[in-house]
Amino acid sequence: MSTVETPVELPRPTLSSEQSLESALKERRSVREYSHRPLTRSELAQLLWAAQGITGPDGLRTAPLAGALYPLEVSVVVGRVDGLPSGIYRYKAERHELVLVEEGDRRGELRAAALGQEYVEAGAAVIALAAVHARTTEKYGKRGIRYVHMEVGHAAQSVWLQATALGLGTVVVGAFDDAPVKRILGLARDEEPLCLMPVGRLL
Prior knowledge:
By secondary structure, the protein is of the alpha+beta class. It has seven helices and seven strands; from the N terminus they run βααβββααβααβαβ.
């Protein structure tokens, strides 16, 4: 897989909305059917920021992380996003931007790697959360693996609630073959995929 270092600027995240956290918690559901309408670039930017966005000058993130060691890596497989060509991108939290990894719509391949689950391909985009466990285990030993898995849950819930607040649907997918998902996303040797989140507009 070729890597093309092409930075893509994202709209700045919105820090307030008309929907309360309480109503987002009440309305949050697993959504597996989506319309064919695309996401906007601003919506995708907001979802990525919810996953691992920086929230202050000290570099702390939207989701809690043990020891502030940042083991999570966020990728997005874009199919239908206005103003953004289909492809695989890596989210760079420090600059709130995307880096193009490879062009082309790879949602069908990702669906196949996810045991044929149709909604992986149906989403306008798929957010993928991966981790470099060693960043945490070097400090906390084997227990650090547990911390990383807690952290991916925190990040996934942040994406879920943000999607709900935006009127979008998503679901966490944990059933997939690691090796092909890793290959499709272009992950490094020490990066392990932990969950996939297709996101789309409600029917």
